Amino acid sequence: MATWRDQVALVTGGGRGIGRAIARRLAREGASVCVNYVSRADAAESLVADIVANGGRAISVAADVADDAAVEGMVDRVAAAFGPVTILVNNAGLSYKASLESYDPEKLERMRQVNGDGVIHTTRAVMTDMRRQKYGRIVNITSIAAIGTALPGNAFYAATKAEAQILTLRFALELGPHGITVNAVAPGFIQTDMTRGSDEEAWKQRSQKIAASAMLGRVGDPDDVANAVAFFASPDSGWVTAQVLAVDGGRMDYVGH
């Protein structure tokens, strides 16, 4: 039976925020971890150093998930270092807030390439080895925006995350016969350096407002998401697939029915 020590995890966008917490958690469980990044080499390398200092196994690899060839090269590097990828966490993503009147087509397309095409590229890059081993865990980080929260300016971001969400279900159907599970974690509002920004007073007001729309009365922490990912990535979760788990403290501000 597979154990955590047998696992090789690739976490895209793993250097900061939610991805950093996920990579750290999987390493703590015993998996070898590749921390993927695009521009923040310092953040990725500091995480790798921290994991190694605590007895774990980790490397960092730069690759843009929107670039199919770069993704293939990254997966080859991971395999050379640790063996074939058995856990893929599609965490890399972009958020671009805009309205119908104000959106920039180039920024919109870039977000779609990362949030949608990135999931396709990485999944395709790891599936051959996973199929051969009859084992794999794929976890896509989507968003409750895809389910329908009412935060203004997020329509296009929500659309790209909805694409990742439906790809989760369809890829689960396609890869299931090969022993590969595909699930999604849909975070609510999570406190990271990116969401906090530099204006402490603005953060306080924003976080209090969003916390009030959650049943648990607080915003999330990256570890809240990492805990959910660890379950889906676990060798023990082999009978769970095609699921989307909202990790949002019980958000109540949904639009629609």
Give a structural overview:
The protein has helices at residues 17-29, 41-53, 68-82, 105-133, 155-175, 193-196, 200-211, 222-233, and strands at residues 8-11, 32-37, 58-62, 87-90, 136-141, 180-187, 244-247. By secondary structure, the chain is α/β, with parallel strands linked by helices. It has one domain (4-191, 221-247): NAD(P)-binding Rossmann-like Domain (Rossmann fold). It has a 7-stranded parallel beta sheet with strand order 3-2-1-4-5-6-7, sandwiched between helices. Helix 2 (41-53) links the parallel strand 2 (32-37) and strand 3 (58-62). The radius of gyration is 18 Å and the shape is globular. The mean pLDDT is 95.
Which strand order spans the largest sheet, edge to edge or round the barrel? 3-2-1-4-5-6-7
CATH fold title: Rossmann fold
Helical content class: 40-55%
The CATH architecture:
3-Layer(aba) Sandwich
Per DSSP, the total helix count is 8
Report the average pLDDT across residues. Answer: 95
Distance between the termini: 44 Å
Order of helices and strands: EHEHEHEHEHEHHHE
Q: How many β-strand stretches?
A: 7
Radius of gyration: 18 Å
User: How many domain regions?
Assistant: 1
Based on secondary structure, the structural category is alpha/beta
- Tell me the major beta sheet: 7 strands, parallel
CATH class: Alpha Beta
Labels describing this entry:
single chain, 257 residues, alpha/beta, Rossmann fold, 7-stranded parallel β-sheet, 8 helices, 7 strands, 46% helix, 14% strand, globular
Can you summarize this structure?
This protein has 257 residues and is of the alpha/beta class. It has helices at residues 17-29, 41-53, 68-82, 105-133, 155-175, 193-196, 200-211, 222-233; strands at 8-11, 32-37, 58-62, 87-90, 136-141, 180-187, 244-247.
